[in-house]
Design a protein that fits this description.
Strand order of the largest sheet: 1-2
Number of domains: 1
Order of helices and strands: HHHEEHHHHHEEH
Strand content: under 5%
Length: about 300
């Protein structure tokens, strides 16, 4: 059983906590924990395509840091000067790396969220709070994979008349891409209108409307929530004690690490890596059960 099989509330609590930590904590150790855990879990969820994207993001972080330091000139540690006399400072480069890591980590987490949250989970979580929002958001999530498939079909049809994205010179390819994009937008607007009308006819805006649910909050989910609350409490205690604070302007000022700091680091690490460990342990138990079943079948055949 993977993390996607947990109760939607468990998934929601985890991703809210981890996204908040990714955006709020700029301390190098906390940021490294968030980035590495997001990297590993996104690869676990999405496979080699996600691995290629995540590796591609790493040099982009460095390029963004250089670009950020080229027009933001704070800090006292001057490394060099550019052609117009502006300073490249260590503080601005490091802060650019921090911003790049945060944005990259959020992208990785969003890929995990998309693979875990289904339309049923969205309707279950937000159906009573805002039925219209939940239904529209669920319909939008459903349209995302359909947009990709429709774009492939449109491109195949355009290739038949010599207007594919890979046909012609550079200007012709740009024109073909714009044409296909326009067709996709027109198709998307039409689908949204049809979906909205269908939802209205089915009574999605009626007050007190209840949605069918197959989710049950069992003891397993209670254990996960208790563990997450414990890790969140440890992390928040570290934040209140200043363990997550750091200043980059005008100089780098960081709270010194102590033996107690490692308690906060470990608590935050277990919070971020929990779904990955859960899925690895589940796969291990499943493979072990299959091996035991195969051994029993061979013994029975003998």
């Amino acid at each position: 059983m993977g993390f996607e099989q947990c109760h939607p509330a468990v998934n929601f609590i985890y991703f809210v906590a981890v996204l908040y930590g990714m955006l709020a904590f700029q301390h190098p150790i906390f940021l490294a924990i968030s980035f590495i855990c997001a990297f590993v879990y996104s690869v676990k969820r999405n496979g080699y395509k996600s691995l290629f994207l995540n590796i591609l993001l790493c040099p982009l972080i460095i390029l963004f840091a250089l670009y950020y330091s080229s027009y933001t000139h704070f800090g006292i540690t001057v490394l060099s000067k550019n052609m117009i006399g502006n300073n490249f400072t260590l503080e601005s480069i490091l802060y650019g790396c921090v911003i790049g890591c945060i944005v990259s980590g959020v992208i990785m987490l969003l890929s995990c969220i998309y693979s875990i949250f289904t339309t049923d989970k969205v309707v279950y979580l937000f159906g009573r709070l805002s039925p219209k929002f939940s239904m529209y958001f669920a319909a939008l999530l459903r349209l995302v994979p359909r947009i990709k498939e429709e774009a492939r079909k449109i491109n195949s049809a355009q290739c038949g008349i010599g207007r594919g994205v890979n046909q012609g010179n550079i200007l012709a390819r740009i024109k073909n891409c714009v044409r296909i994009f326009s067709i996709i937008i027109t198709w998307l607007i039409d689908k949204l209108m049809v979906t909205s009308e269908a939802m209205r006819c089915r009574g999605s805006s009626i007050k007190g409307r209840k949605a069918f649910s197959i989710y049950r909050f069992d003891n397993r989910d209670r254990v996960y929530v208790i563990f997450m609350v414990l890790c969140i409490t440890i992390t928040m205690a570290g934040a209140m004690l200043g363990q997550t604070d750091i200043v980059y302007n005008p100089r780098i000022i960081i709270y010194p690490s102590t033996y107690m700091s490692w308690v906060f680091y470990v608590g935050y690490m277990f919070l971020c890596i929990m779904p990955f460990l859960l899925e690895v342990w589940t796969e291990h138990r499943f493979n072990k059960s299959r091996e035991n079943l195969g051994i029993e079948e061979k013994m029975y055949e003998k």
